[in-house]
Input
Amino acid sequence: MAIQMTRSRAVGQGGIVYALLLVAAFATIAPFYWEFVLSSRTTGDIAATPPPIWIGAALSQNYRTLIEYAPHFWRSMLNSGVIAVGSTAVTIFFSALGGYAFARYQFPFKEQLFWLLLLTMLIPSQLGLIPWYIEMTHFGWTNSFLPFIVPAVGNAFGTFWMRQYIASAIPHELFDAARIDGCGEFGTFWRIVLPLAAPAAGALAITSFIGGWNAFLGPLTLMSDPSMYTYPVALANLKGVHSTDTGALLVGSSIATLPMLLITIFGSRRIIDGLTAGALSGQ
Output
């Protein structure tokens, strides 16, 4: 009897957990579904009460309106892709290189430099927007991708992230073995550290890509040529002074959301591995 009651209680608790997970999944998926539904409706339908919950027939018209008022929309998607991929590649390489140096070597003022690096994360990006704009203008980098790719060399969070993972998850004996086998310092980094730090690098790559893909304030400040806009800036320009075609705006938002959904779906395991592997290895 006691065993049966225990099993019944376990089944009941499991049912509650699954019910809560279903509610959470619905709450997560519903906004994206609704965005896709509204992107297929006219502005009048979107403003109706109650709002529509099924796909309409205005998708093609909204898309034509989007291309008419944002002729560089697909170019803006390409621009966002270049910034996201370029900044991600630079972030991964140099963050892993810096994290490896902080985790492996002893040098003067090491701890002070590391804490100084962390302190830069406390400064809001908006606070340095004007000095950054002046600096990029002085370099002649306006209307180019360089201001969003080159500064990724000194990504403070990425360096901290990779340093923590390398220090906890990669045994020091591997470095000694590589040196005995005649592997140089960069060879050790490239052949041993990077492959073993793949979980952390993968998680960092996903977060960096999402940040680059959604870049808005920086491109809005530096890009004056419409052909160089990123997709958030291109969508922002769809907002008219007196009116906004909400359907066209939502079509553009839906198209831009798809890559993020795919990356989240297929990269969620990598994010979890990056968050947990270092902690488990350090135990």
Observations:
- The first helix runs from residue 2 to 38.
- The chain has a mean pLDDT of 85.
